[in-house]
């Protein structure tokens, strides 16, 4: 417990989740403590009451400290707002006669790209860089995520007023990408916002944020069944279901001295989910979302092919590999029964629910929608401090020692 740990602060529309964790020897996150608290002062990613939001963050930290005894001083927090923008640029650097590129050349190229593509009213909150070496040049690919300066200042002020030191602000999609990095498209169905992110070479290529979420489903239930918002939220959590092809149950329940048919509840939820997913499909089409044709088998590149045909087939294979391979779905709005099947039928692509395989606690893995962002923030902090890179280098060295030991025992 006394070893260093990292705190991830997930600020959502309806909940605040703060998680403290560290990396164990097996490469997974040991969750030392976690605490959730209802959020106030935030609406659709916009701070409407900074004092209330700061008080909620402070209370969540105090509860975690009383429960675990851990001190929370520095945090990695997420930022979700409608004015987040992404942009990907490329820059080619020629290699000199000595086959070396100086560090100052790379820094100058990156600074020129950022300064020429960032307006004065925006601030950079994330930069991802990939380099590809070719014959006589190096191709730099830079992905930038920015937000409006007043929005960043509001989030920063709320966290500092809560008595915390902010290490970094990270978009939720990038934090979750630290956990769900196997697929190219990540969709986070939150309470007030839905985030769609397209990744290429593990860099965020594009992002769309929709002002829609599970809150809209609750509002429709409250309006159609004529119940309060809190009662509609409980109905959605306890009985919520998206209609499938089979006929729904004719069961009835009593809510506040009123008889409610579950069939009607299912219909209200299904209608809103269908409308919701149509908007998601339109947004995905704006991200150059294309159907993936049948992949070429790498075994088809036989030795009988000529060099020209082999090169053409390899290029075709490389192009197909860059297309989106699948969709990862996460967020509290995706926990409705039958929601995943409806997403797969609407988007006509394979869809998987995000799974926190990097979390050491099985309870955390089961509640991935609750902890996905906070665990991703911990991983982001580990990668930034270099602890994650150090672990993998040690693991490679230890595996090398094991291989040498096995060979020695086998032959001597």
- Element pattern in H and E: EEEEEHEEHEEHEHEEEHHEEHHEHEHHH
CATH topology of the largest domain: Nucleotidyltransferase, domain 5
Average per-residue pLDDT, rounded, comes to 77
Q: Could you describe the largest sheet, including whether it forms a barrel?
A: 5 strands, mixed
Proper CATH architecture of the largest domain: 2-Layer Sandwich
**What is the percentage of strand-forming residues?**
25-35%
Structure in a nutshell:
The chain folds into 2 domains: 1-84 and 149-179 and 356-412, Nucleotidyltransferase, domain 5; 181-289 and 324-355, ATPase, nucleotide binding domain (Nucleotidyltransferase, domain 5, 2-Layer Sandwich), CATH 3.30.420. By secondary structure, it is α/β, with parallel strands linked by helices. The protein has helices spanning 50-68, 103-117, 149-161, 172-177, 214-225, 229-239, 262-285, 307-321, 339-347, 362-366, 368-385, 387-411; strands spanning 6-11, 15-23, 29-38, 42-43, 46-47, 74-79, 85-94, 122-133, 137-148, 165-171, 185-189, 194-200, 203-210, 252-255, 258-261, 327-330, 351-353.
């Amino acid at each position: 417990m006394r070893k260093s740990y990292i705190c991830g602060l997930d600020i959502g529309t309806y909940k605040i989740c703060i998680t403290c964790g560290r990396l164990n020897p097996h490469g997974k996150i040991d969750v030392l403590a976690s605490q959730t608290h209802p959020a106030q002062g935030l609406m659709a990613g916009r701070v409407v009451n900074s004092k209330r939001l700061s008080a909620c963050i402070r209370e969540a930290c105090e509860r975690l400290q009383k429960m675990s005894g851990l001190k929370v001083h520095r945090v990695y927090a997420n930022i979700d707002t409608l004015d987040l923008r992404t942009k990907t640029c490329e820059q080619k650097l020629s290699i000199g006669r000595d086959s070396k590129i100086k560090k100052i050349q790379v820094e100058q190229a990156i600074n020129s790209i950022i300064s020429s593509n960032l307006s004065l009213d925006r601030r950079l909150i994330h930069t991802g860089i990939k380099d590809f070496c070719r014959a006589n040049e190096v191709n730099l690919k830079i992905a930038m995520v920015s937000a409006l300066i007043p929005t960043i200042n509001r989030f920063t002020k709320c966290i500092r007023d809560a008595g915390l030191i902010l290490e970094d602000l990270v978009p939720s999609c990038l934090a979750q990408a630290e956990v769900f990095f196997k697929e190219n498209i990540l969709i986070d169905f939150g309470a007030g916002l839905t985030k769609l992110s397209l990744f290429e070479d593990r860099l965020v290529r594009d992002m769309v944020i929709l002002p829609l979420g599970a809150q809209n489903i609750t509002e429709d239930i409250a309006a159609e069944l004529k119940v309060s918002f809190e009662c509609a939220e409980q109905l959605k959590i306890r009985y919520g279901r998206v209609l499938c092809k089979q006929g729904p149950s004719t069961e009835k329940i009593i809510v506040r001295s009123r008889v409610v048919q579950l069939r009607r509840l299912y219909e209200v939820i299904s209608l809103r989910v269908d409308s919701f997913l149509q908007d998601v499909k339109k947004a995905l089409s704006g991200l150059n979302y294309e159907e993936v044709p049948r992949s070429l088998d790498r075994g088809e590149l036989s030795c009988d092919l000529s060099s020209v045909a082999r090169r053409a087939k390899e290029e075709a294979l490389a192009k197909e590999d860059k297309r989106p391979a699948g969709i990862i779905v996460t967020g509290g709005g995706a926990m409705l029964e039958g929601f995943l099947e409806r997403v797969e039928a609407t988007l006509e692509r394979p869809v998987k629910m995000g799974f926190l395989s990097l979390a050491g606690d099985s309870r955390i893995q089961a509640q991935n929608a609750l902890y996905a962002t906070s665990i991703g923030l911990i991983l982001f902090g580990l990668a930034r401090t270099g602890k994650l890179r150090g672990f993998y280098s040690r693991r490679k060295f230890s595996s090398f020692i094991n291989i040498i030991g096995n060979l020695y025992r086998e032959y001597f």
